[in-house]
């Protein structure tokens, strides 16, 4: 390839907010744990010759990113639940490219990350957007013009305004490019009054003077299952989250070991303590019905709680969910790829997952995720079978 890819990340805060909130919690509670992450090419994308070498150059460049004084002040003022010790750590943090192993064999790409969890936790999202951006550059695919991107985004936010629903932008990890994501967030900020509520991208939240959105991800629950067992994973994940954040960041992700298993442990204490839940797999309308029934069973008025829907959304899905749920419970929508990679090209289907954790120097414990969609299962087959048996999942 003769193309020289540009460096796509403008800031160390160019990452999903829940990576920083989880990093803060990991530092406080589990500073000695080591972690492994693995790249999963769900879309079976074919990578051109030299892709791995180009990716290595970009990964090495990540080491130059540092938290600026302006960024430090932004976090201190706008995110007071991130304690001072963590902010001082982040001010001295630098990505270590030695934690990332990249191997390309023919058209197949392998990426693995290994190191202390509190350090490696920030790699997942940048690695995904680096792969996505490089893929479009090195395959020389032409996207829609900036004008088309703005027009398309404006049309979508107009629909969401008409539906009168809150919408956040969640598309950092599989964006077409930073430039596209910036155009999208700028357009949402200008034209999304009373509908656009924030972005998961911390740098763009700071830049656009909007709210950074996020709490925790599946890996938080996957770690707890590996350390404490599958039956204790949900409850202890929520307990430890509440221990760190004391009522802030109160949205619980429910589907790491299926939503049904989660709500068996989401008792009255958790239901009152957490402001709401996030839907990320399975039928969203059926999920909402179960959540509403669960709150009512516990004697809690669902009108005072909310669901954030975040699973593969577009305008049609948002409209359908809104018609079925609005007025019954609070609702909000986190929209990713459909905002930041809807540019006339096929979006990539790629993920990076926590695959193992280590509590001592003797052995690695494999991690498992069992969402309400079998295609989103991750982990070793034997461990998946064990999790399903322990949790009585058919």
Your description of this structure?
- The protein is α/β, with parallel strands linked by helices and 394 residues long.
- The chain is built from 17 helices and twelve strands.
- Helix 2 packs across helix 6, helix 7 crosses helix 8 (178-191) and helix 7 packs parallel to helix 15 (315-325).
- The chain is globular, with a radius of gyration of 20 Å.
- The termini are far apart.
- The model has no long low-confidence stretch (mean pLDDT 96).
Which key terms come to mind for this protein?
394 residues, alpha/beta, nicotinate phosphoribosyltransferase, 2 domains, 7-stranded parallel beta sheet, 5-stranded antiparallel beta sheet
In short:
It contains 17 helices and 12 strands. Helices cover 45% and strands 15% of the residues. The model has no long low-confidence stretch (mean pLDDT 96).
Question: In terms of structural class, how would the helical and strand content be classed?
Answer: alpha/beta
- Number of self-contained structural domains: 2
- How do the SSEs run, as a string of H and E? HEHHHEEHHHEHEHEHHEHHEHEHEHEEH
Number of helices: 17
**What is the percentage of strand-forming residues?**
5-15%
Q: Compute the separation of the termini in Å.
A: 48 Å
Query: How many extended strands?
Result: 12
Topology at a glance:
Elements: H1 17-29, E1 34-40, H2 51-61, H3 69-78, H4 84-92, E2 100-105, E3 108-116, H5 117-120, H6 124-138, H7 146-163, E4 167-169, H8 178-191, E5 196-199, H9 202-208, E6 211-212, H10 218-228, H11 233-245, E7 251-253, H12 259-265, H13 268-273, E8 276-279, H14 284-297, E9 306-309, H15 315-325, E10 330-335, H16 337-340, E11 351-358, E12 365-366, H17 381-390
